[in-house]
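Case study.
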Amino acid sequence: EVQLVQSGVEVKKPGESLKISCKASGFSFANYYIAWVRQMPGRGLEWMGIIYPGDAETRYSPSFQGQVTISADKSTKTVYLLWSSLKASDTATYYCARHLSNVVGTNWFDPWGQGTLVTVSS
Amino acid sequence: SSELTQDPAVSVALGQTVRITCQGDSLRSYYASWYQQKAGQAPVVVVNGKNNRPSGIPDRFSGSSSGNTASLTITVAQAEDEADYYCNSRDSSGNQLFGGGTKLTVL
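After joint prediction, the assembly is written out as follows.
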């Protein structure tokens, strides 16, 4: 079964660092892009960035460039999302998702992880 | 502009047909994909590309596109179709775009 399993709920204080994870199984991890998507409370989906574990190529949304770091570990088939200094506005649910595309340029995300709720509060 | 615009809310009577739309310049060049997100759950793709349904998605879900508008149509809407629906495409730079989402209520 193709699946992505994310790490659990996090409660942090402003200024703290955090790394959340997304472990893949059931497919060739190195050969697919994995994306991170933010969903703030009661709001829509926002694409944060993407990584190709095969060569660690990363691409960030302009809105998130410099705010987070995406990395991958091929040995454990895990993708990470890292903050060096959290803000209250980082409170959200974060999803990882496998990115797929076809020859005519259509892309989609499937499957999605179950989501990691991050709460940042003093 | 690099945005996708959706109506915030749509309603449909049980058993009727509803169309959810998504507008954006990028849709003139790239097909949209559509996701269903039920309360407290992760999104699930229901249509990708021109009109492709992943395995397990009922055939009452279909996609179409014309000009700068993509549409998701649900025929014979069921109570379990009540959810938020998001469109997704890409811009010319390769960045991914999501619409703001449409909350579907089944009456």
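Observations recorded in class. Chain A touches chain B at residues 35, 37, 44-47, 50, 59, 61-62, 95, 97, 99-100, 102, 104-110, 112-115 (CB under 8 Å). The mean pLDDT of chain A is 97. We will return to this complex in the next lecture.
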